[in-house]
Task: inverse folding
């Protein structure tokens, strides 16, 4: 089975909406890395030497390749990535191989077979 890793950097307040959207699109789970920060084209403003940047979460979804684009778009819509500058980004990466998916593979295979 071909897999993709969807990685999304999302405003903390929209993380659950993005996870829910990914699950609705076919993701069987998520890994959340909380309280990360990044910097865009324009550095964040500071106040007395302290950065005023919003906390972000990194969401990781390992999904079937056939569903990856739909899930990616659902996450982007839930995170309002195209509506609000700086609200987040998402990308997908091809996965060559993965182990430890024994509980998720039967579910993924069944859902993909139903689509065919």
Result:
């Amino acid at each position: 089975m071909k897999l993709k890793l969807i990685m999304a950097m999302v405003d903390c307040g929209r993380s659950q909406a993005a996870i829910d959207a990914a699950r609705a699109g076919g993701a069987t789970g998520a890994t959340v890395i909380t309280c990360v920060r990044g910097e865009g084209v324009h550095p964040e403003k500071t106040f007395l030497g302290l950065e005023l940047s919003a906390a972000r979460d990194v969401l990781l979804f390992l999904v079937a390749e056939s569903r990856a684009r739909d899930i990616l778009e659902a996450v982007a819509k839930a995170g309002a990535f195209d509506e609000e500058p700086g609200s987040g980004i998402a990308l997908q990466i091809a996965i060559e191989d993965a182990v430890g998916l024994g509980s998720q593979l039967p579910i993924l295979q069944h859902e993909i077979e139903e689509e065919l």
User: Anything to note?
Assistant: The first strand starts at residue 3 and ends at 11. The first helix runs from residue 15 to 25.
